[in-house]
Description:
The structure holds two protein chains of two kinds.
Chain A lengths: L1 E7 L5 H9 L16 E7 L2 E7 L11 H12 L4 E7 L3 H13 L3 E7 L8 H8 L2 E5 L4 H13 L13 H14 L11 H6 L5 H17 L1 H27 L4 H19 L2 H17 L1 H15 L6 H8 L3 H7 L6 H10 L9 H11 L4 H26 L8 E4 L7 H35 L14 H13 L7 H9 L5 H10 L6 H8 L10 H13 L4 H11 L1 H30 L3 H25 L19
Parallel strand pairs in A: 1-3, 1-4, 4-5, 5-6
Antiparallel strand pairs in A: 2-3
Chain B lengths: L1 E3 L8 E7 L4 H9 L7 E7 L6 E5 L2 E5 L1 H4 L2 E4 L1
Antiparallel strand pairs in B: 1-6, 2-3, 2-6, 3-4, 4-5
Amino acid sequence: MNSIILIGNPNTGKTTLFNTITGKNNRVGNWHGITVAEAESKFSLAEFSGQIVDLPGIYSLASFSPEEKVATDYLFSHKNSKVICICDANSLRRNLLLAIELKNAGFFVTIAMNMAKEVNIDYKKLQELLQIKVVPIDARKKQSAICLLKETILVEQPTCHDKKSATIEQIFGVIDHSLSVVNYPQKTYGTSKLDKFFYNKFLSVPIFLVIMLAIFWITFGPVGSFLTGLVSNAFSFFSDRINDGLIKISISPWAHSLITGGILSGVGVVVCFLPQIVLLNLCLSFLEDVGYLSRVAFMLDGRLKKIGLSGKSIMSILLGLGCTASAMLTIRALDSPQKRKNTALVLPFASCNAKLPIYLLICSAFFVKYKFLIVFGLYLFSIILGVVVSYVASKISKSNSEHFIMEMPPIRWQSPKKTIKNALFTCLDFLKRVGASIILCSVVIWVLSNLTFSFAYASKTEDSILYALSHILSPVFAPVGLNRPTIVVALLTGMSAKEMVVASLSISNGIVGDLNALAVSLSNPASSAFFSPSSAISFLMFVLLYSPCFSAIIVAGKELGKKFACFMFFFQFALAYSISMVAYFVSNLLISGRWIEVLSIAFVLALAMLVVIKYKRRKNLCKACKGQCYGAVYCNRK
Amino acid sequence: MDKLLSDIKENQTATISKLIETNNAVLSRLKEYGLVAGEKVRVIKIAPKSEVYLISVRGFALCIDKETTKKVIVCE
Lengths: 638, 76
C-alpha cells in the first residue's frame, strides 16, 4: 500500500492539501500550530489509493516543542514512507531548509510547490539544482493533487539514499545559491495598511476591545436573536408535525412521551441556539484566518507575561470561547510547561459556546431588557477572574523560561467560499454532537425523571428515580440557592456536555422546543425548575465557573497529567460554589432592599484589600533605593 | 561596529554576525528561522512595554522577546 506523509513549515497549506486529497474537512487557519497531532486517513483519488498522514508543521528536523516532536518522531519511525514536503512558493528562502534536511536524512522527498503560480521561476531548473523532485501545485485544486500523487507514487525517485550531514548555515548557503540561479525574486516582508493600526501603541488595545465587543454584539444582539427565533419556530413546527404523526399511528403512551418529552424536548432546546453558536465560531475563525490574532499576541505579550501567560495563550483562550476541549489541545504550541499549565487553568474561564444557551435562557426569563449587557458582563467577569487566578498561579510557581519566538503571518483575507464552508461544517459538527450525546443523555434523563425504582411509569414527579437521587444532593446546593432537584440534575448532566443543562431543564419541565414557554416556566413558582431572581444570578455564576465538560478534562489529563486535571476539576467546582454563594447572598440582600449591609460589606472588603496590598509592598522593599520605588520588582536605581 | 540585535531601533537594518552560545533549544530554533551569520534583518516594530521585537528575516516576519534578541550579535 502507498503510504504518504505530508510535512512542511507551519502555515504552508499541508492541511489544505490533506483535505483536498482525502475529501475531509480538517481545520485550517492562518496561524501556526493549528494541526497539533498527526491525522491519518485513507484516500482514493483518481486511480491512486493508500494512506496519508498530515503532521504538525515544523521548521527543521531539530524540533523542540511537543507538537513538533510528534512530527519528527512520526517521520523517523516511518522511514519507508514517501514524504511530500510542502513549500510555499512565496517563502522559499525559508521553506526549502526542511526539504533539504529531509533529503540529507535519507527520505524519499517530493517538494509540492504550493501557490506556484504566484511566483514565476523555472521549477525544472530548481529541481535540478536541489536534486529533489519539484511539483508545482495549488493545494486547493483536485487536479494538481492528482498530478502530485502521480509524480510521487508512480515515478521512481532520483533521491539519493546516502545520508549527508550539513549544518543549517551550509544548507541556507545552498538554498541562496540555487534561488539566485533561478532568479527568485527577493521579497521583503511587507506590512499592510491595517498593520499601522494594529501595531499602534495606543490604538491596539482599544481596537481589540472594540472587535471583541462587535463580535458579542453580532452573536448576542439582534442578529443572533433573530436567527434563533427563526430556528425555534421551524423546530416547533416540525415537532408539532411529528407529534401529530405519532398520535395518528397510535403508539403506546410511554413511547410517545419518550419521543416528545424526552428526545424532541432535549434536542429542540439545544438546536435553537445553533445560529448563535455558528456566528460566534465564524467570527473567531475569521479573526484567526486574517492573521489578527498573531498581532494581538505580539502586542499583548508584555501584559500577559505579567500574569504568567504568554502572547500565544491569547489564541488558546479565544478558541476556548468556541470549545474548551479543542482549545485545550492547542496549548501544546506554548513554549514552556509552566505557561501551558497556567493557560490550561485560565482556559475554562473563557466560557465555551455550549454554555451560551444557558445564559440566554436565564436572561430571557429574568433580565429581558439587559440581556446583552448581562451576558457581556458575565464574560467580562470570568475574564477578570481568569486573570486573578493566573496571576496567583504564576506567583505560587515561579517560572523562569521566558522565550517568546513566533512567526507573524501576513494579513490574508478569507474567501467568502471558505467562510460558508466553515459555517456549514460548524453546523454539521454541532448537529453530530447533538445527534450522539445529547439524544442519549436526553433519553437517560427522561428515564430517570419518568420512571420509579421499580421501572414503572411514575405518575408523580416525587416518585421518580431522579427526584430521589437529587433529594440526597440538594442540601449540598442549598447554600447557593439551587436546592430544586431538577436544577441540581441539570447542573450534574452539564458535566457530560454543557448543552445538556438547558436540555435537562426543558425535559424535566415537560416543554417541547418552545423557548418562550420554557423561559416563562422558569420564573413560575409552581414549576419544578423555579428560579428566584437571586438564585438565577447564582445559577449563572455557577454555570459560568464550574468545571468544564468531561472531554475537556480528559484532554487536560492527557496533555498535562492526571493530577493536574483532577486539581483543575475540583478547583473549578470549589470556585464556582463559593462565588455563586456570595452572589446569592449579595443579590438576596439587594433584592430585599438592604443596601446598607451590602455597601458596608463592600467597604470592609476594599479596606482589607488595601491592607493586603500595602503589606505586600512593604515586604518587597528593595535595598537599592530604600523602598522609594514602592516594591517595584525592577528598581531603576539598582 | 558590533551591536546586539536588541540595540537596533525600529526600521533599521543590520547584518547578523554571530549567535551567542545559549541553551541549545533556543539556538537551534533561531537558526531554523533563518537567523544565521550573514543574514540581513530589519526591525519592523518593537511592541510597547513587553519589548517584543518584530523583525523581518529571509522574507518573513518573526516576533522575538528582548531576552532572546540579546543573544544575537549584529553589525550595521
